[in-house]
Recover the amino acids of this structure.
């Protein structure tokens, strides 16, 4: 596993180009939703075909929704990809850091299962993913900050994770009226905080994230079950 300090210069697609020159592939992984109050953290893993890029393979946060959908369509048609999910209960049980790593590993395994070639490297955006308990334990993992701007593979992963999670939260919105999930997708906006204060939490809220919002605060280990809400998991 190799960690790169901010002072270490990484050129755009440095790892992709090195792999392609040797007729191998790399897998980029990224997450969406770590800072949300509710819903899952979603991860994407993408293995780009050799020498095949799209101009919209950029950080998902700087793309418009229309651009993300265009890029998502291209990625899912031309690349090997996979998703990983860690829902609110996993997050509360393990903490958000460990839950994200669990979801990243799932996404990697799904992407690699589709690809006829085992990647020669795995790239993540600052997450030290460990693969020792998988069949890919010998693959080196490179993690560095600002991964979406330095790797098209990580950028692609961020895009599919963002589109997948936004779509999921949009489907949750009518099931939990009053929380405005279609607007904030679960993030901690003033409107979302107000809704939680007024209605309390739903069955998809992360109780470990609500201690500074609810009074009295939610106790560790308290049930997610909420009167009148059907459990989705």
């Amino acid at each position: 596993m190799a960690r790169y300090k901010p002072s270490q210069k990484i050129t755009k697609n440095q790892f992709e180009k090195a792999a392609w020159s040797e007729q191998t592939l790399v897998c980029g992984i990224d997450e969406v939703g770590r800072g949300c109050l509710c819903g899952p953290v979603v991860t994407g893993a993408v293995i780009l075909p050799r020498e095949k890029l799209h101009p919209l393979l950029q950080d998902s946060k700087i793309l418009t929704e229309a651009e993300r959908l265009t890029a998502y369509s291209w990625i899912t048609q031309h690349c090997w990809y996979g998703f990983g999910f860690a829902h609110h209960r996993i997050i509360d049980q393990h903490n958000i850091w460990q839950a994200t790593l669990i979801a990243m590993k799932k996404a990697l395994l799904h992407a690699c299962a589709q690809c006829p070639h085992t990647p020669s490297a795995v790239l993540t955006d600052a997450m030290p993913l460990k693969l020792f308990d998988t069949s890919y334990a010998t693959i080196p993992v490179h993690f560095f900050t600002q991964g979406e701007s330095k790797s098209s593979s990580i950028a692609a992963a961020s895009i599919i994770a963002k589109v997948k999670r936004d779509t999921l939260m949009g489907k949750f919105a009518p099931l939990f009226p009053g929380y405005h999930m279609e607007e904030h997708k679960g993030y901690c906006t003033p409107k979302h905080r107000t809704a939680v204060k007024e209605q309390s939490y739903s069955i998809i809220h992360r109780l470990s994230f609500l201690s500074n919002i609810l009074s009295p605060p939610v106790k560790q280990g308290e049930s997610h079950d909420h009167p009148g809400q059907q459990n989705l998991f």
Remarks:
- Residues 10-171 form a domain with the Nucleotidyltransferase; domain 5 fold (CATH 3.30.420.10).
- The CA atoms of residues 27 and 47 lie 5 Å apart.
- The chain has a mean pLDDT of 92.
